[in-house]
Amino acid sequence: MASDDAVVVAEKLAKDYLAGAVQVHALRSVSLELARGEMIAIMGPSGSGKTTLLNLLGCVDRPTRGRYWLEGEDVSRLHDNVLSRIRNEKIGFVFQVFNLLPRLSAVDNVRLPLLYRHRAIPRDAPAQALARVGLADRAHHRPTQLSGGQQQRVAIARAVVMDPTILLADEPTGNLDSRSGEEIMLLFQQLNAEGMTILLVTHDPDVAQHASRIVLMRDGRITSDLPVAERLDARQVLAAMPAPEPEAGALPEGEVA
Ligand code: ADP
Ligand code: MG
Q1: How far apart are CA 83 and CA 62, in angstroms?
Q2: Potential cystine with 98: which of 58, 82, 124, 151 (Cβ 3.0-4.6 Å)?
Q3: Average pLDDT, stretch 58-64?
Q4: How far is the CA of 51 from the centre of ligand 2 (A)?
Q5: What is the pLDDT of residue 246?
Q6: Which ligand has an atom closest to residue 60 CA?
Q7: C-alpha angle 128/133/136, rounded to 5°?
Q8: Cα(112)–Cα(126) distance, rounded to whole angstroms?
Q9: Quick one: pLDDT at residue 6?
Q10: Would you say the pTM of this structure is higher than 0.85?
Q11: CA 69 – CA 9 distance, rounded (Å)
């Protein structure tokens, strides 16, 4: 049914929630296919089902109806323990809030997913992941010693340290100023150019324009699914921006919060 290169094949996915006595149809029959190496932006008004879809594709939750194949494996009916193992192995998550542990250094935050690993991961994978997001020199800083953009980059390093099949991001630039947000988009585009499949949710049309394809949702359905004709290049956008201001929240070198 799906091409060999399909990472995600979702067929008529639906999710109902019970809110008190009322059934909420958060998702109504969503079919979606993602090929390896795509970068997809999902847009849509608040409440349209974006996060619900992300949670289903990220194996956080199971659909009420419909089927979902991740790299050809039907994961729509699996038990919790199997599902969490697949989630740990194959999914990287990035959120609007960075969710870093404040008492751990950057590199120890990145190391966290390795505690639950089920396969061999190189010892230096956390340091490598930090280098990949341009923070090799901040490995032993704590989150409070980093700017918001740097914290989000640590969160991205944590999300890719297991070399996931797909990176899922829910409003990853939502808490960032435009320059820091653009730097995050540059990072996503670099990871994508290296072959990482990425799906991100955003309400910002400019952010979405960095993707290779934009999916619009409304009332739990996909209403449009189109390739991006003129994809924004984050490197060029950054070059055209005014010079950066000193990073708010970042402490001078050597100071401890
Ligand atoms: P979006 O991310 O696009 O804002 P969501 O996927 O979070 O939308 O929500 C879609 C709909 O499902 C909304 O009406 C929301 O209130 C409802 N919903 C989401 N999660 C739950 C839940 N755990 N229990 C009840 N209703 C929920
Ligand atoms: Mg949401």
Answers
A1: 9
A2: 151
A3: 94
A4: 4
A5: 66
A6: 1
A7: 55
A8: 9
A9: 93
A10: yes
A11: 5
